[in-house]
TrEMBL record:
<protein>
    <submittedName>
        <fullName>MmcQ/YjbR family DNA-binding protein</fullName>
    </submittedName>
</protein>
<dbReference type="InterPro" id="IPR058532">
    <property type="entry name" value="YjbR/MT2646/Rv2570-like"/>
</dbReference>
<dbReference type="Pfam" id="PF04237">
    <property type="entry name" value="YjbR"/>
</dbReference>
<dbReference type="InterPro" id="IPR038056">
    <property type="entry name" value="YjbR-like_sf"/>
</dbReference>
<dbReference type="GO" id="GO:0003677">
    <property type="term" value="F:DNA binding"/>
</dbReference>
<dbReference type="InterPro" id="IPR007351">
    <property type="entry name" value="YjbR"/>
</dbReference>
<keyword id="KW-0238">DNA-binding</keyword>
Amino acid sequence: MIDAEALRAVCLEQNGAGEEFPFPRSPDLSVFKVGGKIFALTNLTATPLSVSLKCDPELAPQLRAAHPEIIPGYHLNKRHWNTVTLTGSLPDRLVREMIEDSYDLVVAGLPRAQRLRLDRAEPRRS
């Protein structure tokens, strides 16, 4: 099961990823970014643990239909974001893939120079 420590580790193992706490009204909200853009949001101290992730708009409804733990992004664009509750019922591999997909979608939208710098960075661990 992916717990808070594992969730943070998976997010931070993505090339160029960093963690910030930019919301003074929500000081426990971890925001994971690459190239200044958000790819994951979570409160690592919340119970149950959940994470909001960017998702391909074609895939998002399919994931929601297949897994009750995946719902439209909480306080986010529902077409592009899912919120995933990590209760242990989703396979860890699926959660990891959703995090990596979110990261990849954000990277794809970065300027070419930033993408090239990330490509030259040390590859992420799988």
